[in-house]
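User: I'm putting together a small comparison set for a docking exercise, and I want a reference complex before I start. The sequence is below, and the ligand is flavin-adenine dinucleotide. Could you produce the 3D structure with the ligand included, as structure tokens?
Assistant: Of course. I'll restate your input first, then give the structure tokens for the complex.
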Amino acid sequence: MSPAEYDVAIIGGGPAGATAAYELAKSGASVLLLDREGRPKPCGGAVPPRLIEDFAIPSEQIVARVGSARIISPKSQAVEMTIDGHRRRAGTSYVGMVDREHFDRWLRRRAQAAGAHVEQGTFDRVEERTGGGFALNYRDAKGARVSCRSRLVIGADGANSAVRRQMFSPAARPPYVFAYHEIVCSPESGDFDKSRCDVVYDGAISPDFYGWVFPHGPVTSVGVGSAKKGFDLKAATSELRRRSGLGDAEIVRREGAPLPLYPLKRFDNGRGVLLIGDAAGVVAPSSGEGIYYAMCSGELAGHAALEALRTNDVRALKSVRSEFGRMHGRTFFILRMMQYFWYSSDGRRERFVSMCRDPDVQKLTWESYLDKKIVRREPMAHLRVFLKDMSHLMGIAKA
Ligand SMILES: Cc1cc2nc3c(=O)[nH]c(=O)nc-3n(C[C@H](O)[C@H](O)[C@H](O)COP(=O)(O)OP(=O)(O)OC[C@H]3O[C@@H](n4cnc5c(N)ncnc54)[C@H](O)[C@@H]3O)c2cc1C
């Protein structure tokens, strides 16, 4: 029997791959969506309303809605930032929480319902065929070897992408933070607030990133990220649990994964292979937010792959990188600068948290998170934030 042939083979059925598969399948392309399944992605699961609206996520996938974030400094200065009133676009104002096990499965099912061939299996190898297209090998759920062919390949197989390792130069590897979290049972009584996220900026919790407490209803994700070799993420998470009143909470799971922090210079290899999501490094600096950007790159990939199939020209895949940069390059640049300036010492973290008291800073923070836009219409607010930023940085303003 000759191997199955697809227009596009997508490796990895997380938010990036499942979104690309859905876009392609609903336009009539033949798509393989391969995912090994079995182990939910370690993730805090926080998503903005813009994602829920743009990607038509049903409300039952949102397991909790968070109305404020409390930002905590090294000296325990706490600034509560409520979301309400900070949405420009019409719509609801909250941070949604998804359970990745159910959310990712739902996204794959949606792609399947649109016509994608969704297969549980582990990707092994991809090779270019003489005469064009690709030959792929994977093991199915029973461990049997399977071969197939495709005209294009999309690598959506996460931060350690095997597609990237096989089809791109070794230099195409984004820098990482390692993120570790513990899922604990949320306390039913006491001071714990299930409708608020905590974000902790403190060198003892993370020397170069931050720690978080994200409630998901009956369970809560408590975790930290750091790129520093030798930093004890488990000890820091345990300290964060203690400080958050979750020291005695029952631990449901412990897990971690790399979190890429910079998009690659190129997402396609010029020969018909495209990377999206974590595989392409599209996670926001400073915040580590990756689900929205993974889905956004998946949608762009779907459109670009359709164009490449229609014109029989793989150069159409290039547009994913340029379009992503056009949409989010400015936000990523600002977030990268913020991370560089504010996450480098406890003195700066203290000033950063002080700055978060400012209504202009809160407005810009929430608008850029909720709507994924840094609003151009208010140059004076930007100027005010810039001047306050500089005076805090130079130590003119009081921490
Ligand atoms: C601890 C932690 C907390 C986080 N918290 C948040 C948060 O709160 N909000 C947020 O927006 N982002 C968060 N992120 C980032 C977010 O999880 C990622 O950016 C996002 O999951 C990227 O989606 P993706 O589809 O590109 O990759 P992934 O979600 O990693 O999906 C890759 C898929 O590929 C599959 N796969 C991999 N290799 C193979 C193979 N060989 N064969 C078959 N299938 C394969 C996997 O099974 C997986 O389903 C967090 C990350 C970490 C590590």
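The chain has a mean pLDDT of 91. The longest strand covers residues 117-128.
User: Thanks, that's exactly what I needed.
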